[in-house]
Prior knowledge:
Residues 10-104 form the Ig-like domain. This protein has helices at residues 2-5, 79-84, 126-135, 142-160, 162-169; strands at residues 11-16, 29-36, 41-47, 50-52, 56-58, 62-63, 69-75, 87-93, 99-102, 108-110. 28% of the residues lie in helices and 29% in strands. It folds into two domains: 2-119, Immunoglobulins (Immunoglobulin-like), CATH 2.60.40; 126-169, no CATH class. The strands form two sheets. Strands 1, 2, 5, 6, 7 and 10 form a six-stranded mixed sheet that branches. It has a four-stranded antiparallel sheet with strand order 4-3-8-9, with no helix packed on it. The chain is built from five helices and ten strands.
Amino acid sequence: NLNKEIKIPPQVSLLQTDSSSPTDPSSPVVCHATGFYPDKVKNSWQKDGQDLHEDVDVDETLPNHDGTFQKRAELKVTPDVWKKNQFTCVVEHKSGDPIHMILTEEKIRTNSAGTGASSSRQNQFPLCKFLLTEVCTGSFTRKCVIRIIVSALIIYTLQTDPFYASVIDH
Length: 170
């Protein structure tokens, strides 16, 4: 089955809303995994190498517009705390080894003008990139277009048809 062979790894970013309010000097840091397929992923935080459950909110996995998925894990600690300890976002997906991203000021993307996530447009369509590079092996021919269409239809059917969704989950 083609769908069971498709595994697209997540892209991981550390995000933070730029907060300059004196009453809220720091907003939570979000570990954002996106662009992965299939939808099963574990997104968590560690403090000094130990799993952290306090001050962490993990959202449900959500679909992206291109058939891939995204998931967020929010870390609610002040910069004073995370600068004195090592906080690591850990993303585990069946596409490969776990991704460990250590929280540093340099790695955080904010919504400040001209920097970070708001200006980042690379890898916006990972499923399309996967279909072009893996299914078409780099050459864009009529046969390749047919393969892309068939692959996209299979993925769409497997994600939207309740019968197939229940079969895949079990």
